[in-house]
Design brief:
Blueprint lengths: L10 E2 L5 H10 L4 E5 L3 H14 L3 E5 L1 H8 L5 H26 L2 E6 L7 H18 L6 E4 L6 H16 L4 E6 L4 E3 L2 E3 L11 H11 L6 E5 L18 H14 L9 E3 L7 H9 L2 E6 L1 H17 L8 E3 L2 E5 L1 H4 L1 H23 L8
Parallel strand pairs: 1-4, 2-3, 2-11, 3-4, 4-5, 5-6, 6-9, 10-11
Antiparallel strand pairs: 7-8, 12-13
Helix pairs in contact: 2-4, 2-12, 3-4, 4-5, 6-7, 7-8, 10-12
The structure holds zinc ion.
Amino acid sequence: MKNLLSYIKPGVLSGNMLNKIFYLIKKYNIALIAINCVDTNTINSILESARIYKTIVIIQFSYSGSCFFINSNFNELSKHKCSIMGSILAAKYIHEASLFYQVPVILHTDHCVKENLDWIDNLLKYNKEYYSSFGKSLFTSHMIDLSNHSLKENLDISCYYLNKFSKFNISLEIELGCTGGEEDGVDNSNISIRKLYTNPKDIVFAYNKLIKVNNNFLIAASFGNTHGVYKPGNVVLCPKILLNAQKLIKNNYSIKQVNPLNFVFHGGSGTNFNIIRESIEYGVVKINLDTDIQWKYWLGILNYYTNNKYYLNTQLGNPKGDYNPNKKFYDSRVWINKGQLNVIKYLSKIFDMLKCKNLINY
Ligand SMILES: [Zn+2]
């Protein structure tokens, strides 16, 4: 839908903008992509894609990805400090860079498990100062993932944070059921299959609790989702779970809107396009892609290496002469750029699939 979101200004968006955006994109069965970044090279390729294809992107940082942003050689003792500082610095960079690229960005932190809640607490502490200086929050939204705990505990803690976030216009993403596979040190590879499929009644329970605080939340309800890419047939996705939950909410609360809930699709990598399209029809507004983007980034570099092998194994000497310098080939700017260009090319296809190109016109 051309220029649908042109009224939205470039820069990092505040959490209370999200409901307006999601309301509009759901009407036209559009979804936004959320990409995990770990450094400015990945951030820049995402911002460049958004600029070229005139769309809004969701940039997110995991706990470990934030740590990597500032220090990839951490020792376990300093990892926590690095994660806090890494996400603050990454956010500050994106606030400035998104204005430079002239694109609106939803800035998000990914899965925060119970053991790491102090990460979010520290971000909120820092955010308090940031908010009083700049009148806006560092992040648009945070995800609290207590899917490995009881539904009651999950919602008690989630509601506590949703309430805390509301002072700073920050939205909350929660997880119900569990996302399978392994990501970022959280290993759900061996959990029971039953946990991979959320009971729609649990979604109603969560909605009922959260809506009493406010409506700035998204729900990552699992329907067989798995992080990573596996052998076809290993993962059976059942997006109808989302449809059933939407129907229950509509009936229980007499809501006319086709899809009142905002759903998140975790583990989008390696998923059949038709399943993604089907889930968007049932109210998925945010599709998380991580593994596939990592692969495309690497593939760009691998192809560059394969095509220039004889210029990349020694500092001097290539098919043009024994002492010919290879500096122009191994300069990190050259090969990092190959990864970036391959990501941008891939994102063009993904934006087509999500129907999110040309949402803005500046
Ligand atoms: Zn996830």
